[in-house]
Amino acid sequence: MGKSLRNEDQNELEKIGSLIEDFLTELNEIGRITDRIKLSKAFDNILKSWEKRTDELYFDRPLEDFKEKKLNKIKEMETNWQERFTIIPTDSVKVWTAEFCVKWLEETKVPPDYLSEVSLEKYYNLRNVVQKRLDETSIEGVVTLFKNLLPEQQHQCLKIINPANPRNNNIHGGKSISEQS
């Protein structure tokens, strides 16, 4: 038991440890990617890179396992997003209020990069339906947006809409429109 490793073996083990550490670091970096195309390219690049780096260690299987888990996680994230935002009967949008349309449009303004092309197409189609509904309720939409403004913003908005009105200097006794409703 008192025997130590030969220098040659110790150096080899340190080299292997360093390679594994580098590999895990690269996997960690790839783990942050959620865009499917970028993820596939990153996996291809890391696989090619590691094939060139060493003949002693094979990272193909762990890399494929990691890739499969990562893609499954992305599919799960996509499903959750779809359930929350796009699995909505188009007919139900016809009864949405302007406020709800604005809220949905704001929450989905920038679709996540993990959505597939099919999901993006469904999203943009629904977005068009929601935008059309908002356009149909434009006055209601303007009032909803106006109510969400700060009192100073409401004052400025009214000045722009009707600059000749002297009441714009002291609108509604300092109260906002939403406070009066």
Topology:
Blueprint: H1 7-30, H2 36-53, H3 60-85, H4 90-93, H5 98-107, H6 117-136, H7 138-147, H8 151-161, H9 177-180
Helix pairs in contact: 2-3, 5-6, 5-7
Could you explain how this protein is built, in words?
Among the domains are: 7-77; 149-180, no CATH class. The longest helix has 26 residues, at 60-85. Helix content is 70%, strand content 0%. Residues 171-181 have low confidence and may be disordered. The protein is an all-alpha fold. It has helices at residues 7-30, 36-53, 60-85, 90-93, 98-107, 117-136, 138-147, 151-161, 177-180. The protein contains 9 helices and no strands. α2 (36-53) runs antiparallel to α3, α5 (98-107) runs antiparallel to α6 and α5 (98-107) packs across α7.
Strand fraction equals under 5%
Helix content: over 70%
Q: Any idea what the radius of gyration is?
A: 29 Å
The biggest beta sheet reads: none
Number of strands: 0
How many angstroms does the end-to-end distance come to?
85 Å
Shape: elongated
Mean pLDDT: 83
Written as H for each helix and E for each strand, in order along the chain, the element string is HHHHHHHHH
Counted by DSSP, the helix tally is 9
Q: Pick out the low-confidence regions.
A: 171-181
Q: What structural category do the secondary elements indicate?
A: mainly alpha
